[in-house]
TrEMBL record, chain A:
Domain ABC transporter positions: 5-235
UniProtKB keywords: ATP-binding, Nucleotide-binding, Transport
Pfam families: ABC_tran, OB_MalK
SUPFAM superfamilies reported in the protein's UniProt record: MOP-like (SSF50331), P-loop containing nucleoside triphosphate hydrolases (SSF52540)
Keyword Iron: no
GO CC annotations, alphabetized: ATP-binding cassette (ABC) transporter complex, substrate-binding subunit-containing
Name of the protein described by the UniProt record: sn-glycerol-3-phosphate ABC transporter ATP-binding protein UgpC
InterPro entries with a match to the protein in the record: AAA+_ATPase, ABC_transporter-like_ATP-bd, ABC_transporter-like_CS, ABC_transpr_MalK-like, ABC_transpr_MalK/UgpC-like, Mo/tungstate-bd_C_term_dom, NA-bd_OB-fold, OB_MalK-like
One GO term (biological process): carbohydrate transport
Keyword Nucleotide-binding attributed: yes
NCBIfam families: PRK11650.1
Automatic annotation (TrEMBL), chain C:
GO cellular component: plasma membrane
Localization per record: Cell membrane
Organism expressing this protein natively: Paracoccus alkanivorans
Keyword Membrane appears in the UniProt entry: yes
One Pfam family per UniProt: BPD_transp_1
Origin organism lineage: Bacteria, Pseudomonadati, Pseudomonadota, Alphaproteobacteria, Rhodobacterales
Protein name from the UniProt record: Carbohydrate ABC transporter permease
């Protein structure tokens, strides 16, 4: 199996700053990979190293089987869509689209044909002779996409291409980009800080932090089985609740460090007396009338946010526990009982945050 | 070979070459003469030894010679006066005009731009025009002063030792005002109207607002303008050449003109270099302080 | 509402007064140029020519202005060519790359910018003499003046390049262009206006250059208009009509260019000087 893009122990330094640490990653042909992580974690840097816009300090980068460490960007045959779109302001849409073909001195007829096809795919037919400044944000985004796909490159690189669009258009473009990817059967690397975007679009999500890959896998795997506390907190919205706790004598339940010392059972077994961080997602806590019984938290209500479909209930404990309730929660209610299934309780090591179950 | 070509078309070689071309030119035609200047300031250089490479080394004799000359002190104080008065007046007038054109009235920016017409003119022409305006018998300035009663006798601006230096300063102020005004305008328009309104709500009078808001917020800009003013004033040569030639008897002479006179009229090139070296040192010092201070602004 | 209008037009009147006072020397130059020789020395002086004389042609020929202006043009043109050729790339790199080396280069360039011509001319004169450049006096002036204005050009152009987004160049490189190609087809066209205005500024400055020409060019036939003007203005000269006409002919094109490009020059100047 040859990977379309293969990174092997990639390291990158900016002066003394270690921006990418030992990154290894193989991307198969036709795969859509999303890179997510908090701001400054090195997503763009990684993408730009793949593109050749930044040099590599150590490791090997292969594209379609060939080592390209020392190749200039123009020799790598990749297409990139920038957050700012980077449309050439002094060229019309048509000339923007054909820029790369003109560099390769392709024939006029050839170019005409490609432009027509791309314009049809991206819906730009009537805009070909406009300048970028005469286009709306969404239209510019399409030109940027068009300029990338007209190349038929070995892979597409996207650096937060949708973050300059308004919310509605962003949701729409998400599915459009994904459909385009399917239709072209292209290989794509997609950088975003929006984990919803990553979860909905990608075949595989790579979570990065501080220049390190924390976990990679299918979107739902990351959601269900985060390998450490960071990924657990990063994937999923609203974020997972974390509370300290101590494993009880029975080894299959944990006492939470909360007023009332609630006890939660979990799926699996840990040594008794171990101190851990317990994690559970707001949407996995369901409100119940019962005051006692298995896996119930009794929480004093501190604050209620109602969005219409869902209410977010914040407890007045330390740390605060968030519940997401799929109904209108009464604002004046003083306390709430929430139940959680044992297999939805996560345990993480208190020292290094690795998942324990 | 291909790696070699690659770095020039795609890598750092490209940047290096572009920088090296300009830097090379500057080293050849600015830095090298600069160093050569220092060497010459310790040699005896005159018309005859000009073309030879083997000139008598005299150590710091030239420096002692310059410091010992009777006119040195006078010229030093002239230079200080020239710079001090020019910069102060340019700044005051420039600041006043900048604030005035900040007010809201039709055509304000366009009219403000007209001032730069003075700045774009060749200084030698400006000197010519001013020497006609300042002429003793038929100059229009004397006429205006007499007619309005501001003066009671003709002043021979350019040939009276009392006034010669101030004539050059006057023309230099005229040249420098536009630049000061434009730079200060940029700073002023960077202060948001909200701040003034907030101060007004707090009960600050117009004058209080100037001293508590405008001045402190303009500190960086004022620093820049003063440094640039000093630098440009020390570059001024053409006005001396066209107005007074440093005369009468050095009454309006300054170092940058004297240095040239020594080299090109007296052919005491070694001595001319001494002054050149000292003055360049001073100018570069001012510039370095200025550049350093703007750097800090950026970091903050 | 009305009170406000009165105030605004009052300010306008005041502004016109200030501009009038400031530009009086220019006005006086043009008026004098139009006066007859007897009117020039009239007491009291007339503020509007009674009997305008058009002596442009006479002055042009008598003072050999064609020769002088041609030399000025040659010098200004030569300087502009050298400066744009050597400076544009450097300005671009300085705008693009920030590291210790580039900071050092920028600092050097800024320091070179402030060296006064009248102080640099002494060593330049000697060096040029020794290497035999004094055989080509106009070329000497061009080389020296180019070194004088090159830093200013770099600083101002750098400000223009700073405004061109880095992503455009990167996009071009990913799209298959080399650094050189991206620079020439993307960056330079986008910075064209700034480069042009800065070049005009350099041209105008060199068109009025005096120190180097005065010191390096001894033959009359090779001297530029500044040195020419100076030679007609001896202490005992009384041909003020001629000198002012000469000045007017000389500066009028400069002023026209300035009025046409006023806005761009002002913005270019301010963006560069304070960075
Ligand atoms: N040219 C550079 N020189 C020095 N450090 C840099 C450079 N470019 C990026 N960095 C540093 O590398 C780290 C990673 O930057 P990068 O742009 O890859 O972050 P990112 O994950 O894309 O963040 P964002 O989501 O905000 O875009 C940051 O800490 C940044 O400060
Ligand atoms: Mg980024």
């Amino acid at each position: 199996m040859t990977y379309q893009i293969e990174l092997e122990n990639i390291n990158k330094y900016y002066g003394g700053y270690h921006a990418l640490r030992d990154i290894s990653l193989g991307i198969e042909p036709g795969e859509f990979v999303a890179l997510v992580g908090p701001s400054g974690c090195g997503k763009s840097t990684l993408l730009r190293t793949i593109a050749g816009l930044e040099g590599i300090s150590g490791g090997t980068l292969r594209i379609a089987g060939e080592t390209v460490n020392d190749r200039a960007p123009r020799e790598r045959d990749l297409a990139m869509v920038f957050q700012s779109y980077a449309l050439y302001p002094h060229m019309t849409v048509r000339r923007n689209l054909t820029y790369s073909m003109r560099l390769k001195r392709r024939s006029k007829a050839d170019m005409e044909r490609s432009v027509e096809e791309i314009a049809r795919i991206t819906g730009l037919e009537s805009l070909l002779d406009r300048y970028p400044r005469e286009l709306s944000g969404g239209q510019r985004q399409r030109v940027a996409m068009g300029r990338a796909i007209i190349r038929e490159p070995k892979a597409f690189l996207f650096d937060e291409p949708l973050s300059n669009l308004d919310a509605a258009l962003r949701v729409h473009m998400r599915s459009e980009v994904r459909q385009l990817h399917n239709r072209l059967n292209a290989t794509s690397v997609y950088v975003t800080h929006d984990q919803i975007e990553a979860m909905t679009m990608a075949d595989r999500v790579v979570v990065m932090r501080a220049g390190v890959v924390e976990q990679m896998g299918a979107p739902l795997d990351l959601y269900d089985r985060p390998c450490n506390r960071f990924v657990a907190g990063f994937i999923g919205s609203p974020a997972m609740n974390f509370v300290d706790g101590i494993i009880r004598e029975d080894g299959v339940s944990v006492r939470l460090d909360l007023p009332g010392e609630a006890v939660l059972r979990f799926a699996g077994a840990r040594p008794a007396g171990e101190t851990v961080t317990v994690g559970f997602r707001p949407e996995h806590l369901s409100v119940t009338m019962a005051a006692t019984g298995g896996n119930i938290l009794s929480l004093p209500v501190g604050f209620v946010e109602r969005t219409g479909s869902t209410s977010y209930v914040l407890s007045s404990t330390t740390p605060e526990i968030l519940l997401s309730v799929p109904e209108r929660f009464p604002k004046e209610q003083g306390s709430v009982n929430a139940q959680i299934a044992p297999e939805l309780v996560h345990l993480f090591s208190k020292e290094d945050g690795t998942a324990l179950l | 070979m291909s790696r070699f070509k690659n770095t020039f078309s795609d890598g750092v070689g490209f940047d290096t070459i572009l920088v090296m071309i300009a830097l090379g030119y500057l080293v050849l035609f600015s830095a090298f003469p600069l160093v050569y200047n220092i060497v010459m300031s310790m040699q005896e250089v005159d018309l005859f030894s000009l073309a030879s490479f083997d000139r008598p080394f005299v150590g710091l004799d030239n420096y002692r010679d310059v410091l010992g000359r009777p006119e040195t002190m006078q010229i030093f104080f002239n230079t200080v006066k020239f710079v001090g008065f020019s910069v102060a007046a340019q700044l005051a007038i420039g600041f006043g005009l900048a604030m005035f054109f900040q007010l809201d009235f039709p055509g304000n920016t366009w009219l403000r731009g007209l001032f730069l017409a003075g700045w774009i003119m060749p200084a030698i022409v400006v000197g010519g025009v001013w020497s006609w305006i300042l002429a003793g018998d038929f100059g229009v300035l004397n006429h205006i002063l007499l007619a309005t009663g501001l003066g009671d006798e003709k002043i021979f601006w350019l040939s009276d030792p009392e006034f010669a230096l101030y004539s050059v300063i006057l023309a230099n102020i005229w040249l420098g005002v536009p630049f000061n005004m434009i730079l200060l305008s940029v700073g002023l328009s960077g202060i948001s109207e909200d701040v003034y309104e907030a101060a007004q709500m707090d009960g600050a009078t117009r004058i209080q607002r100037f001293f508590t808001i405008t001045l402190p917020l303009m500190r960086a800009q004022l620093g820049a303008v003063i440094s640039l003013g000093v630098i440009f004033t020390l570059q001024q040569f053409d006005l001396f050449a066209s107005l007074t030639q440093g005369g009468p008897s050095n009454a309006s002479n300054v170092f940058q003109y004297w240095s040239w006179q020594l080299s090109f009229q007296n052919y005491e090139i070694g001595v001319g270099s001494v002054i050149s070296v000292l003055m360049i040192l001073f100018v570069v010092l001012v510039a370095a302080v200025y550049v350093r201070s703007t750097r800090h602004e950026h970091v903050a | 509402m009305r009170g406000n209008d009165v105030k605004r037009y009052g300010l306008l009147a005041l502004a016109l007064l200030f501009v009038g006072i400031y530009l009086f020397p220019l006005y006086w130059m043009y008026v004098t140029a139009l006066k007859s020789n007897s009117e020039i020395f009239a007491i009291p002086p007339t503020f509007w020519p009674r009997d305008p004389q058009w002596i442009v042609m006479d002055v042009w020929q008598r003072m050999k202005m064609d020769v002088y202006l041609r030399n000025s043009l040659i010098i200004a043109f030569g300087v502009t060519v050298i400066v744009t050729m050597t400076g544009t790339g450097c300005a671009y790199v300085l705008a693009r790359i920030r590291n210790r080396w580039m900071d050092a280069v920028l600092f050097t360039v800024l320091m070179m910018q402030v060296l006064p011509s009248s102080l640099m001319i002494t060593p330049i004169f000697v060096v040029f003499n020794q290497v035999g450049l004094s055989e080509y006096p106009r070329l000497s002036v061009i080389l020296a003046q180019a070194a004088k204005v090159l830093p200013l050009y770099i600083v101002l152009c750098r400000a223009t390049f700073l405004q061109v987004p880095k992503e455009l160049e990167e996009a071009a490189r990913v799209d298959g262009n080399s650094r050189v190609g991206a620079f020439l087809t993307i960056i330079v066209p986008l910075a064209r206006n700034g480069i042009l205005v800065t070049s005009v500024l350099i041209f105008l400055q060199s068109f009025g250059e005096y120190v180097y020409s005065r010191s390096l060019i001894t033959q009359r036939a090779l001297q530029p208009a500044t040195v020419g003007l100076q030679s007609f203005m001896g202490p005992n000269s009384s041909d003020w009509a001629g000198v002012m006409t000469y000045s007017a002919i000389y500066v009028t094109p400069i002023l026209i260019v300035f009025v046409l490009l006023q806005r761009q020059i002002v913005s270019g100047l301010t963006s560069g000087a304070l960075k």
